[in-house]
Amino acid sequence: MDTKRAINYFKNGHSCSQAVIKTAIEEGLCPETFYSASTAFSGGMSSGCICGTLAAAQMIAGFCFPESAREISASIVEEFKKRNKVTCCRILSAGLEGKAKKEHCSKYVSDVCEILNDLLKVKV
């Protein structure tokens, strides 16, 4: 997945989950209907919990690899934790708002795109 494109979408009006999904749609990894479905995933799925980028990545994994989606989703979360220690949006973005939060959370958009790229190389 094009990490730069996803970050650009994120910094220019799309939520973290929408940026990941929009990039995946453009690359033919999932249908357009996923975009509207991903709307509520930002902000820790609107509750502060799991990072929206992870939720988006799991949607993509489930669509691309339905037979092994649970295994792949677990590996996505594991790799994200290796890179960032936690998966909770509230912790990952603690104390940040507005532009500072967008800048900070760009790393998570990038991480998820890289993780998906690695998985797609192995599974395809």
Provide a brief overview of the structure:
With 124 residues, the chain is mainly alpha-helical. Helix content is 73%, strand content 0%. The chain is globular.
Shape descriptor reads globular
Q: What's the count of strands?
A: 0
Oligomerization status of the protein chains: single chain
Helix content: over 70%
Which parts are unreliable, with pLDDT below 50 for 5 consecutive residues or more? none
Q: Give the termini separation.
A: 13 Å
Q: What number of domains?
A: 1
Work out the strand percent: under 5%
Average pLDDT for all residues: 94
Radius of gyration, whole Å: 13 Å
Secondary-structure-based class equals mainly alpha
For the largest beta-sheet, the strand count, sense and barrel status come to:
none
SSE ordering: HHHHHHHH
Number of H- or I-type helical stretches: 8
Write a structural description.
This protein is mostly helical. It contains eight helices and no strands. The radius of gyration is 13 Å and the shape is globular. 73% of the residues lie in helices and 0% in strands. The chain has one domain. α1 (3-11) packs antiparallel against α8 (98-123), α5 (52-64) packs antiparallel against α6 and α5 runs parallel beside α8 (98-123).
